[in-house]
Design a protein that fits this description.
The complex is a heterodimer of chains A (114) and B (609).
Chain A: E1 7-12, H1 17-30, E2 34-39, H2 46-56, E3 61-65, E4 71-75, E5 85-87, H3 92-104
Parallel strand pairs in A: 1-2, 1-3
Antiparallel strand pairs in A: 3-4, 4-5
Chain B: E1 4-11, E2 15-24, E3 27-37, H1 47-62, E4 69-76, E5 80-88, E6 97-102, E7 111-119, E8 131-136, H2 142-154, E9 158-164, H3 169-175, E10 182-183, E11 197-202, H4 215-222, H5 226-239, E12 244-249, E13 264-269, E14 273-277, H6 282-292, E15 295-300, H7 305-321, E16 330-343, E17 352-365, H8 371-382, E18 386-391, H9 392-400, E19 410-415, E20 419-425, E21 431-437, H10 440-450, H11 456-464, E22 467-470, E23 475-478, E24 483-485, E25 498-501, E26 506-508, H12 515-541, E27 552-556, H13 565-574, E28 579-582, H14 594-608
Parallel strand pairs in B: 1-4, 4-18, 7-8, 8-9, 9-10, 19-27, 27-28
Antiparallel strand pairs in B: 1-2, 2-3, 5-17, 6-12, 7-11, 11-12, 13-14, 13-15, 16-17, 19-20, 20-21, 22-23, 22-25, 23-24, 25-26
Helix pairs in contact in B: 1-8, 2-3, 4-5, 9-14, 10-11, 10-12, 12-13
The chains are: A alpha/beta (114), B alpha+beta (609).
């Protein structure tokens, strides 16, 4: 499994397709491979999902997506810290891009305040 | 005679410094010192507020009460005020074309596409023998855009490139059956003229475009005559170094040409009247200054950029000093070549082109600064007798001479925010001094402009602190290439960015700036202002005008605290065999507090005698 590189995206069953697609879009635009995995268990907090994703990630970075579309980006090296970046619902694309940019070592995008 | 506590107060352009000392019985014991930002314009009653605060703090540090201070000694501030101005002398003007030249992080595809611009919605689903460049505005979903383009292609329509408003380049590219170059993140896509011939070029990652940045490449693409090629050349120049670009031909000439008249400047000097053209650049202007001799006034040609610039300086200085406009004469002038970002007319993604320009610092000698008024206001406000002490240059030398390892004859170089001053004391104790325009504030202006920051405070921070680049969660590369490890992870707002390393925090810079660029700009701005001015100042105070006759140069003032300016000057003056370094006033204060210390020492002499 570790031979392939990808960013795992863990999401809760029943999430709106559109929200997940947004995250994937962001990852695709940055050109980093990803793998979406559905989690059946009851842990629904994005942070917990993100932490699990980071631990299984060959790239050390993982994304957890909440039922409402909020995202938590976690890093394997920051196991004791809260998630490195959290993005509120409706910013899935930026979350995806930022996870990819975290892997690439590029400056992260700021969420535009309306 | 019993000892008493006295204070020296130095009001500078940007900071006010005090030194508190116990004097008596032929001894001077310094108790404390303090520095605050000067409140109001130097030499006005507004200064009292800052002085009061500084004294209070100094007294607190020394453990004496405010009322114990027996006398205040104020410097007779140098009556010079400076101002800065900057303007372009060239401008990129684009006629008969529009262009997009920028570096989106993730454009789509690679190669060169030539065709006619068309809105996505109006893309024909047939083969009409035309090649198309598709324009995709913000509201369009990338799936739909790709579907629409694939459908048209399937019907025989030829699409050769695309211009996208959102950051969708890669997404659309991935979904296309026929691959084309795509430029994305084009802010003002609605400005793109439709139905016009255009070329889209995207280079491979790590490469730069080659066709559209070459005037003959453009001529080939658009079939231009030699005359037209000449006119389109500025576009090629503006696109050099980009990873992606679009050029659109609009032969009707929607962009009107505008010529900049840089103008000439007349230097009225003591020796000569010299006229120089701004177009010749800063070096020629400064050579003109030398030929003119001690400047009496400088006038710019009316109706030109430089005319406006010098008029503005006159006006600002008149406002600051409260003297009539006609009474202001420019006493010194420092011209420095500068790059000025100008938004390109005819550009669509908000591009800036770096135009060459000139920055000018100027200085006027005013009537004597009304220090007496400040002294009176201080006396009534604080209830402490205030005396206006000696001439600033003399006091600064006195203070600087407390630096270990110095002796007369000595030159001090006072590098402040507004002006660079030099004073020389010879073995007989005679003092000559000069005041030159251009110092720290000019460096800040150059950094601000050349990095297109539009943020003076950020530019000021760049000037004062070294840089780093955050490479990962835990390590940062420093300017000299060394890697610094951090025990705590760097926060997301600085991740991957170039940062200013302030003492306690990291200030992120805009993502487009590279560490090399920022560092290069910072160093060159400092060199252009301070090294130039150091040499100019020393030439003027040195006996017989020969710098080589000087032995000791001591740097004081705020800019002598800078982490690299003193080294630059030490290095430069080393070439002339001069011992130059920043002061260490009283062996403890570094380049600070020279004037305040000098005031105390001068006063102590009187008290003791």
């Amino acid at each position: 499994m570790k031979q392939q590189v990808y960013i795992p995206v863990l999401y809760k069953q029943g999430i709106k397709k559109r929200m997940l697609a947004e995250v994937c879009t962001g990852l695709e635009e940055e050109g980093v491979p990803f793998l979406c995995l559905c989690v059946a268990e009851a842990e629904e907090k994005a942070e917990k999902l993100g932490r699990r994703a980071a631990l299984m990630s060959p790239l050390q970075v993982g994304i957890g997506v909440d039922a409402d579309g909020g995202c938590a980006i976690c890093h394997e090296k920051l196991a004791q810290h809260p998630s490195y970046i959290t993005t509120p619902p409706g910013n899935g694309r930026i979350a995806g891009q930022n996870a990819a940019r975290l892997v690439k070592g590029l400056p992260l995008l700021y969420i535009r305040k309306e | 005679m019993a000892s008493q506590i006295i204070a020296g107060v130095d009001i500078g352009n940007s900071s006010t410094e005090v030194a508190l000392a116990c004097v008596g019985n032929g001894r001077v014991e310094f108790l404390s010192q303090y520095l605050v930002k000067t409140t109001g314009v130097k030499g006005t009653v507004d200064n009292v507020l800052g002085i009061r605060q500084a004294l209070k703090e100094a007294a607190g540090m020394a453990g004496v009460s405010f009322s114990e201070i027996a006398a205040l000694y104020l410097n007779d501030a140098v009556p010079v005020i400076g101002d800065l101005a900057m303007d372009v002398i060239s401008e990129t003007v684009i006629t008969e074309s529009s262009m997009i030249g920028h570096n989106p992080d993730t454009p789509g595809g690679t190669g060169l596409g030539i065709g006619t611009t068309v809105q996505l919605d109006e893309l024909p689903d047939t083969c009409d023998g035309q090649d198309y460049i598709v324009v995709i505005p913000e509201g369009t979903d990338y799936e739909w855009a790709a579907y629409r383009m694939n459908r048209a292609c399937g019907q025989g329509c030829s699409i050769t490139g695309a211009i996208v408003q959102k950051d969708d380049g890669v997404l659309i590219y991935n979904r296309l059956q026929r691959k084309i170059p795509i430029v994305d993140e084009v802010a003002y896509i609605e400005k793109i003229p439709l139905g016009k011939r255009a070329a889209v070029e995207v280079a491979l990652p790590g490469h730069v475009i080659r066709t559209l940045s070459n005037p003959y490449g453009l001529a080939t693409v658009f079939g231009l005559t030699p005359e037209e090629t000449k006119r389109i050349a500025p576009i090629a120049r503006a696109l050099v170094g980009n990873r992606s670009a679009v050029v659109i031909r609009t032969p009707q000439g929607e962009v009107i040409e505008r010529k900049v008249e840089a103008g000439r400047i007349t230097l009225h000097g003591q020796r000569n009247k010299v006229e120089v053209s701004i177009n010749d650049g800063a070096d020629i202007i400064m050579q003109g200054m030398e030929r003119a001799g001690q400047l009496l006034d400088a006038v710019g040609e009316a109706g030109t950029n430089v005319g406006g610039m010098l008029n503005g300086l006159h006006q600002n200085l008149a406002d600051a000093t409260g003297q009539p406009f006609d009474a202001i004469t420019i006493g010194d002038l420092l011209a420095v070549d500068a790059m000025i970002p100008v938004s390109v007319s005819g550009a669509i993604a908000g591009e800036l082109s770096m135009e060459s320009g000139v920055a000018i610092a100027s200085m006027v000698k005013t009537e004597r600064v009304p220090v007496q008024k400040v002294a009176q206001a201080l006396e009534t406000e604080l209830g402490i007798p205030v005396e206006v002490g000696g001439v600033e240059a003399e006091m600064a030398i006195r203070g600087a001479l407390t630096t270990p390892g110095t002796e007369e004859p000595l030159v001090i170089l006072d590098m402040g925010g507004g002006s660079t001053d030099a004073a020389m004391i010879n073995q007989q104790g005679n003092i000559t001094s000069v005041h030159l325009a251009g110092a720290g504030d000019m460096v800040t202006m150059l950094i601000d402009s050349e990095l297109a920051l539009h943020d003076r405070e950020l530019a000021e921070k760049i000037k004062k602190h070294p840089l780093g680049k955050v490479m990962s969660l835990f390590h940062m590369q420093l300017e000299d290439g060394t890697i610094m490890f951090s025990k705590t992870p760097f926060s997301p707002d600085v991740y991957g960015r170039v940062v200013i390393r302030e003492e306690s925090e990291l200030v992120p810079l805009p993502a487009k700036l590279s560490m090399e660029k920022v560092r290069e700009t910072r160093l060159s701005a400092k060199r252009r202002v301070f090294v130039t001015n150091a040499l100019r100042a020393l030439k003027q105070v040195a006996p017989s005008g020969n710098i080589k006759h000087l032995a000791f140069v001591v740097m004081v003032g705020g800019s002598a605290l800078d982490f690299e300016i003193p080294q630059m000057i030490t290095e430069e003056l080393g070439k002339y065999g001069i011992v130059a370094g920043f002061a260490n006033v009283r062996g403890t204060q570094g380049p600070r507090n020279a004037v305040a210390t000098g005031l105390v020492l001068a006063a102590a002499q009187e008290v003791t005698l």
